[in-house]
Amino acid sequence: MRIKSLQLRARVIVEGFEKGLHRSPYHGFSAEFSEYRQYTPGDDPRYLDWRLFARSDRYYIKKFEDETNLRCHLIADGSRSMGYGSGTVTKWDYARTAAATIAYFLSRQRDAVGLVTFADRVVEYIPPRARPGQLAHLTAALHRDPGGTATDLVGPLGEAGAVTRRRGLFVLFSDLLVPASAVRTAIGGLRAAGHDVIVFRVLDPQEVHFRFDAPGLFRDAETGREVFVDPRTAADEYRARFAAHAADVRQECTSAGADFEQLTTDRPLELVLFDLLRARARRGRAAARSAQNRGGGR
Prior knowledge:
Elements: H1 6-23, E1 35-38, H2 50-56, E2 60-63, E3 71-77, H3 91-108, E4 112-118, E5 122-129, H4 134-142, H5 154-162, E6 169-174, H6 180-192, E7 196-203, H7 205-209, E8 216-219, E9 226-229, H8 231-255, E10 259-264, H9 270-297
Parallel strand pairs: 3-4, 3-6, 6-7, 7-10
Antiparallel strand pairs: 1-2, 4-5, 8-9
Helix pairs in contact: 1-3, 2-9, 3-4, 3-9, 5-6, 6-8
């Protein structure tokens, strides 16, 4: 995190991740973004799975890692609440580094990567592309500091989904300090449009554990409102309410069909890549099982 260049920082994380992959029990675990889906007119017939057709009498497209053109939209919450950090790393530092790391990783695979930054509205939209200079464009946008006076998930995610005609992968980085119903609406809209969604909730350890010990004024980063709090009397209630909201947010994401991971800013960044690959592998296996079950039922 001491490396100022976001692109160089991402490269160091990805290279460390790949070296660790060969030394770890995960040796052989790779980005196998394979999936099955029904054939539609216009699809390349070279990718038809004839064995599955023989069992089911239906046409399915089987796409493998080297044949898949993944279109990934990185969605980064740049609201002021993301600027909080109890230590040396703010939530925004962590989120934008994780986003840049995924962009670097996917760009090396020649996948198309785009970016949406938002607060109470869309701040910047960069369409997914796989071309020289795209990574530099993305990291330049991620260097900007958080702004906005509120967090709105529904509007920005709905806008991003509306301008995306092809199905793709949406990866959201946000503290999700919004009502759980807003999470359900925003994620549900993307899923209803056929997109895969991975949600990374980024939090500061103090937000989760609330280990403050001295009474004082707590200031809302977005509204500026200040509230006097004595942690000795408020800590238990805060933790209970925070845990209840966290459980609701997780439930809304998973109910909508999104993969969900909660991260704190003291977690090693290369593990975000493990989370990404694990989520994609789960979805690929689920799609394959679904296709085979439909074939067996017939």
